[in-house]
Structures are given as C-alpha cells and as structure tokens.
C-alpha cells in the first residue's frame, strides 16, 4: 500500500442545491496553498439552466460555491481548471444542448481563480468540442499543454489536443477509435443513471485521461462502451497516437482519471464495474508502479448504493487529492498522504 488513510469531506451540503443536481467536478492546485474545484449544476443534465460553479479551499475550508459561468441559455458541461506556468488560471467548459455539437468556452483568471474574465470560444467556429472534454490538462516536459478530447457524433472517437503557446492555439492529433458498429438506438433504456438521453447513443472511446512517463512518451486511458478501459500511446509529445487497445480494467462507460506522481507512481480513480452503462458504485483508487501495466487497489472511496462518478485526481508532492460526483447531491473531496518509502 502506498497511501495512508485518507480524509473525506463534502464541498457543500446537499441542501445548497435546492433540489437541483450537480456533476462532473474538476480539481486543481491554485497556488498559495489553495485548491480549486468546479462542476456543473442545474435542474437536470443537458437542460438550458445548467451552469458552471466553483469553490476554493483555503486553510482547510471550502468557500461558499458561486456561479462561474452561464453564458447563454444552453446547457453548460464538464468544466476544467488549468493553472499555467505564469500562474494565470484557465477555466474551460462545454456549451450546447446537443453533445454532438457542443463547443468549448474559456475564461482566464488573473487573480488565482478568484474571478474570471470574459468568455471566448477556445477554437472559434468549432462544433464538437476542442480542448479538454472532461479530464484535466497536463503540462508536458517541452512546456506544451496537452488535453484529452473526444467527439460523440456517430462512433465515439478520442483525440489529443495540443497547445504550444499556453492555450492560445491548438493542434489536434489523429483520431483514436474502435472498430465497432454505430448503434443509433438507445442502448440503456432501463438505466437509472441521471445522464442526458443523448449519452446512451453510440459506441467507442471518449474522455481521455493523460500522463507523460518520459520526455515525449505520453499515454492515455479511455472510457469505453465495451466494458473495459482502453489505452493508447504516443512517442511524439501527443502529436500522433497508436491504436487503442484494451487494458482489462473494468469500465462501466463512465469517467475515469489518472495522475502521475513525480516518482512515476500512477494513481487511477474509477468504478470497477465491467458493464456498459453499469452502476456507478463502488468508486475506488488504484495504484501502478510499472507505468500502468499492472494495478493494485489502494482505497475504496464509496461502496453504498448511489452514483459516485466522474472523478478528478491530482498530486501535490506526497499529497493526493480526489473529487467526484456524490450521488448528484454534492461533490466529494478526499485528501490522501503518501507513505514514507
């Protein structure tokens, strides 16, 4: 075991939502000992009132959540925070009632995420979603930013989006997909998961989570419709990728996230359920000391009935931080400490 016992808290009490739902959190180090979290919330996923919310943890306490973005009367989705090397903080998120045609907005903070400037389209004119689709962006050893993106129009397909200039311009990689037939009918009519009905259409791989194991050697794990996590690898800083291949790790067609620590140890948060649109409990934390070839369980974060999903995980020295959807009623936050070697 690599971790000491962790500590869990909720970012806000369920009563704060006043009967609304929340989902798709993202956690980020904001500087000066602060931790930021963002998520979307509203009456129902995919509806026009859904907006982006944020909270900042300082001195062990989360601030009262505030709305960070609701640009137009369309659904807002999947926010991502990224702190640049110049300490400016980017907030990126999807906008659009149709997932197949959503687009990415970005706002920039000059004050460490306390406030954000005006929104602009990340890639003007794009429909389908450039930049990060859900998981955090990473800074590569050459200074470029890499985002895991995917599209859900027909066969679900993943890509890497690379920015050499701090997020001003973007270069999309080759597509990473599966040889599966498109299914144009609802494939989970009886599912109890509170997702947009659009999500049940189609097959493939989406929502890549990334790490760099050596200069230029980049890897992604992928959510899939095939009952297990897939992986793809790049040898040129994420510019081009090999084919996706199965890992054997179970996946319920729900979000995953991985982080690489400074010493190369990987931590992966996931639902260990190998069924397409399967239940989103339990949610666990795994570790790998061999660059993702083998994994061992480190902690069970939730194991009761409910929806515990869409994790976000980061590392800060010996500390590991995780957030995830807590039954659509709040956002859970865990803090773990690495054991001394």
Give a written overview of the molecule.
The relative contact order is 0.15. The mean pLDDT is 96. This protein is mainly β and 341 residues long. The strands form six sheets. Strands 2, 3, 4, 5 and 6 form a five-stranded antiparallel sheet that branches. The protein has no helices and 25 strands.
Number of strands: 25
Q: Work out the radius of gyration.
A: 18 Å
Query: How would you state the average pLDDT, rounded?
Result: 96
Oligomerization state of this entry?
single chain
Query: What's the story with the biggest beta sheet?
Result: 5 strands, antiparallel
Segments where pLDDT lies below 50 for 5+ residues?
A: none
Structural class of the secondary elements?
mainly beta
Strand content range: over 45%
The topology string of helices and strands comes to EEEEEEEEEEEEEEEEEEEEEEEEE
Helix content: under 10%
Helical stretch tally: 0
- Determine the N-to-C terminus distance: 11 Å
Which term fits the overall shape?
globular
